[in-house]
Amino acid sequence: MERTTALEERLAGVERALARWRRAAAGAAALALALVLSGQGGGPTTVAAERFVLKDEGGRERLVMSVDGEGTATLALRDEAGHERVGVSLDRGGTAGFTLLAADGGARAGLVLTSDGSPAIGLHDAQGRSVLAIGVNDQGVPFIGINDPRGVTRGAWAVGADGKAQLVFFDAQGHVRRRIGED
C-alpha cells in the first residue's frame, strides 16, 4: 500500500514537472515569435495581414486585430467563451474608442476621443442604455449628464467657457424644465 502511494506521488511530481516544461516551451515559442516579429531573430521585419488572430491552446480566438471595409482599425479581446469583452478602435476620421463589454456582448463602459480631440466617458446599464456621460464638448465645455432608464437625459451639469457653472433639469421628453446657474 505504501509503495502505491509513493508511486502515485512520484507520478504526480513527474506530471507537474512536465506541465512546467510545457509552459516553458510555450513561453520560449512566444519569445521566439516576438523576436521574429520585431526583426531581432533574423526573420522578416514586417508581417502583413488583413486580419490577425491569436488563439489559446484550445483553439479559441482570444485576440483579433483587423481593419474593416470602412477603414476602422479594431482590436478585440475575447473571453474563453468567445465573447468580446474589450474593444479598441480607431476610425478613418480619427475617432478613437475603448469599450468594456459584459459577457452578453453589451457595452457597459466606454471612452472615446473624437477627431477634434473631445473626450467622453460613457456608462451603460444592462440593456445597453446610456446612464451617465462625462466629457468635454467641442467648445471645451466640461459636462456631466445623467439619463433615466430610457436613456433620456434628465440632468446635466456643465461649466461654460465663461467659467460659470450651470445645472439643468430635463423632463421625460428631454425638454429643459429648470436651469440653475451662476449670476
Description:
It is built from one helix and twelve strands. The chain has a twelve-stranded antiparallel beta sheet, with no helix packed on it. The radius of gyration is 26 Å and the shape is elongated. By secondary structure, it is an alpha+beta fold. The protein is 20% helix and 42% strand. The model has no long low-confidence stretch (mean pLDDT 82). It has one helix spanning 2-38, and strands spanning 51-55, 61-67, 73-78, 84-90, 96-101, 107-113, 119-124, 130-136, 142-147, 153-159, 165-170, 176-181. The relative contact order is 0.06. β11 and β12 (176-181) form a beta hairpin. The chain folds into three domains: 1-48, no CATH class; 49-104; 118-183, Outer Surface Protein A, domain 3 (Alpha-Beta Complex), CATH 3.90.930.1.
What's this model, at a glance?
Helices cover 20% and strands 42% of the residues.
Short descriptors:
alpha+beta, 3 domains, elongated, Outer Surface Protein A, domain 3, 183 residues, twelve-stranded antiparallel beta sheet
pLDDT averaged residue by residue: 82
Q: How far is it from the N-terminal to the C-terminal residue, by CA?
A: 90 Å
Major beta-sheet overview = 12 strands, antiparallel
In CATH's first tier, which class of the largest domain applies? Alpha Beta
Label the structural class.
Answer: alpha+beta
Q: In one word, what is the shape?
A: elongated
Specify Rg, calculated over alpha carbons. 26 Å
User: What percentage of residues falls in helices of 4 or more residues?
Assistant: 10-25%
Q: Which regions contain 5 or more consecutive residues with pLDDT less than 50? A: none
Number of strands: 12
* Overall domain count: 3
Number of helices: 1
Using the 3D structure, state the CATH architecture of the largest domain.
Alpha-Beta Complex
Strand arrangement within the widest β-sheet reads 1-2-3-4-5-6-7-8-9-10-11-12
